[in-house]
Design brief:
With about 475 residues, this protein is mainly beta. Helix content is about 10%, strand content about 45%. It is built from six helices and 29 strands. Strands 8, 9, 10, 12, 13, 14 and 15 form a seven-stranded antiparallel beta sheet that branches. Strands 1-29-28-27 form a four-stranded antiparallel beta sheet, with no helix packed on it. A four-stranded antiparallel beta sheet has the order 5-6-7-11. It is elongated, with a radius of gyration of 30 Å.
Length: about 475
Amino acid sequence: MRRLYILGLALIFLACLDPMTLPTLDDSPNLDFNPDTTYLPLSPSWGAAEGIITPVEVAVSFARQVFVADAGVGDILVFNQAGVRLDEIDPAYATLDFDHLDPDFSPVDIDIDGRLNLLIIDGSNKVYRWNHFWNIHGIDSVASEILVKDTTTGERLWLTPFQLETSSYLISPNWYADLDSSRYEKNTHIADSLLRPHAFLDMDFWLNDQNDLYYSSAQTMFSALSAARLDDPFFYAADSAQDRILRAAQVRNGAVKLGNGETYFTHVALFADNVKSVGFGAGTVNQPTGLDVDNFGNLYYSQLGKEMYIHSVLPNLDLSFPTRFNIGVEDIMMPEQYDRPFDVAVDAKQMIYVANTDLQEILVFNGDGSFFRKAGVEKITIDTTIWVPFQTEGSFMDTSIWVYSDTGSVLVDTSLFIAGSIDSALVDTFYTREQKGQLLEPVSLAADERGVIYVCDSAQGSIFRYILSTSLDDDLKTINQ
């Protein structure tokens, strides 16, 4: 009986969560700006001077650090919002290295959740985790036995951490885990492994393989991932090899005591369910490249496959995550505007940003899917003259004509219409056109709480930042100080 319970661990855990409040499209704010509003580049961009070579992904944490995955150095660089390299001066980032995993390890996508877990993929069937909060305070000791109490009978049990059966108690609403009364010991090996990047979700793990009924866990190749809402204990990952998006639950499996004396659960990620699968219509998956989640729990993803490129679905598993946008209705669902869109991001105001990679631009949409603006392009007004054809006005002329018949002829007074002639004139005018070139290969992007867009341009080895012109208030004037 216990074995069957463990096999359903991730699904049971998700079922115990509070139901989500599903938003309607009316919850999506439309920003009403002047037609002259534009996205302005912030100077300077971040590039070689900051140690950036080939940035492929960017993520902004709730603590306002900017994490950049760089394929050129096979590492993750950390900046503050002014562009200062934190990982070079702050010892809290000393463990953010990957040599112990593989000398050739190279991150391809990253995201950070509300618990300051930095989630990392390298294109394999694994998701790695590095926790910023733990590294700020350090791990003093690791739980050797965890005390749990039956909430009804008061029965007490001492459990060994890091075992699946222990996890079944730690996630059960019928048992209370008393971390402060649990037993801890100094364990440098486990503490170091938790502080450094380590495998978090391993699709080769037998339980994941057994629960992943309709796909091959071994053949999974993660191409994108996203944390969920701030307090949601799960995340999403896109499998480009099998064209699906899955959800992984973060399941309690142990505990640690940090250097500040506080105790926290440790977690392992387990496959929970598949939320979207292969197809060619709205809300289906075909060569996924980017993922993000908004404050309502709506899931957004970009892809390179046929038919459609940008999708958004509601977080309702009972309805198979229904699509929010409809083909041929909302602007965001018009495929002709895209050329290899590699990434999508959404900010706190539900503005949607798309890295339209091969067209060298960022498309920005309102939360309801209507087009708003472009970033990374400049509008130029051209003053010119053009020949404009026109037709002169016609006129009527009074005249008389002879009308002939078998009985004779008669002179009839009438009027004839004389058509005007075609002519042209030289007219002074102007027109507006887009000028590109700021971005060469925008492959990923993120937005912070101020609406600043961070764009990874792999071809230029730079991070470019853009801000809406109406947002240049006194607070944003300090960005580059």
